[in-house]
């Protein structure tokens, strides 16, 4: 797609794009109150941002999932915000995502249990994981550099935080409350509140 894909205020319940490989603009999925599943199994790159915002029925049961297993790069922001029934980012399959050139913003997903991007290496902006009360253990094992801020706050059930290869953060590090088990690579013990 040479431009952007925008699915906004649409009554559809399922969206499947099996042959889509690239979007040169933004991919916007917002305010779709009936949407329960989204699959783009061959998507490899997005030239702009990915915004998955206010889709209250997007869930992770066997018939409702969000899948982008071949996505390798996002040249804008990756935003996952206010999706009230999304229970696990295991259903948001991004096992090949290596680079996000702007921000990763995961906010206010009250049923979110886990966040894993195992091959993510670099984030050109900030990582913000904020107000996900059931999130227990975000993991980005290959993350090396965040060029903006690293903020993990107000995730009430946070039990552990694992980013063992983290080498550089260009801005602030703010982790609260204390997750108990925290591995931020070279930054362990040096977040601004003294928790990790």
Automatic annotation (TrEMBL):
It is found in: Secreted, Cell wall. SUPFAM superfamilies: L domain-like. Its main location: secreted. Keywords: Cell wall, Glycoprotein, Secreted, Signal. It comes from the Eukaryota. This is Receptor L-domain domain-containing protein.
């Amino acid at each position: 797609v040479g431009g952007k894909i925008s699915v906004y205020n649409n009554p559809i319940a399922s969206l499947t794009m099996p042959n889509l490989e690239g979007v040169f603009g933004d991919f916007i999925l917002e305010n779709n109150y009936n949407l329960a599943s989204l699959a783009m199994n061959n998507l490899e790159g997005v030239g702009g941002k990915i915004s998955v915002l206010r889709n209250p029925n997007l869930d992770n049961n066997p018939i409702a999932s969000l899948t982008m297993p071949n996505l390798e790069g996002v040249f804008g922001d990756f935003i996952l915000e206010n999706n009230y029934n999304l229970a696990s980012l295991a259903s948001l399959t991004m096992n090949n995502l290596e680079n996000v050139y702007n921000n990763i913003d995961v906010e206010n997903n009250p049923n979110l249990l886990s966040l894993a991007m195992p091959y993510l290496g670099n984030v050109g902006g900030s990582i913000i994981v904020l107000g996900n009360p059931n999130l227990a253990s975000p993991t980005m094992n290959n993350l090396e550099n965040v060029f903006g801020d690293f903020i993990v706050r107000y995730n009430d059930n946070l039990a552990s935080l694992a980013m063992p290869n983290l080498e550089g953060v260009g801005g602030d590090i703010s982790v609260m409350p204390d997750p108990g088990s925290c591995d931020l690579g070279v930054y362990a013990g040096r977040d601004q509140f003294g928790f990790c």
